[in-house]
Amino acid sequence: MADTKIGNFNKQTYQIKIYNSMDNSVASELLDTNTGATLSSIDFGGNVETAKNYFLTSDAINCIETNAQTVQWAITDDGYGLKYTITFGVAKDPNGTSWSTDFKTTQQTLINAGTWVKSSAYNPIYQNWKSESVDSHLF
User: Fold this and answer.
1) pLDDT mean across residues, the chain
2) Are 30 and 119 in contact (CB under 8 A)?
3) Torsions phi, psi of 97, nearest 5?
4) Which helix (H) or strand (E) holds 111?
5) Rounded to an integer, what distance in angstroms lies between the CA atom of residue 79 and that of residue 129?
6) Which of helix, strand or coil describes residue 76?
7) Closest CA to 86 of 27, 138, 44, 33
8) How far, in Å, CA of 4 to CA of 90, rounded?
9) pTM of this prediction?
10) 125 in Cβ contact with 18 (< 8 Å)
11) Distances (CA, A) of 5 to 2, 8, 17, 90, 138
12) CA dihedral 108, 83, 56, 42 (to 10 degrees)
């Protein structure tokens, strides 16, 4: 449990997008593994839940929502990515692990295991995903 009497700290904002491996441009389409042909457009219809479930595994969503004191989600301005701002309170137990440390540890474990972003969100032969820290916070 976190104490927020003196505020939230460690405000961080990330955006996740798929990039085309050939030219590092932002992908607007999911490509076929065998042919590189377009399978579908990346389109969330303005629905943040659709974008969350397109990109992130249930373990990743749980990591974010469990360890955050506050989290807000959005679709990136270009419509092809997912953005979230997360904050953490101060741990009530000074000897315990902070929520931000738990978040980072779990996030890195999931990334290392290949289970942060869904494998169905991109084509690993022609595309890759990036999670980038950005300064434009949602709150």
Assistant:
1) 88
2) no
3) -80, 135
4) helix 99-112
5) 15
6) coil
7) 138
8) 7
9) 0.84
10) no
11) 9, 8, 35, 9, 21
12) -140
Nearest partner of 137 among 65, 59, 73, judged by Cα:
73
Would the pLDDT of 4 be above 60?
no
Phi, psi of 2 (to 5 degrees): -115, 150
Q: What's the Rg (C-alpha) of the chain?
A: 16
Average pLDDT over residues 68-97: 89
The one-letter code for the residue type at 54 is: Y
Instruction: Provide the pLDDT confidence category of residue 8 given band limits of 50, 70 and 90.
Output: low
* Displacement of CA 39 from its chain's centroid (Å): 23
Domain range summary for the chain, segments of one domain joined by +: 2-133
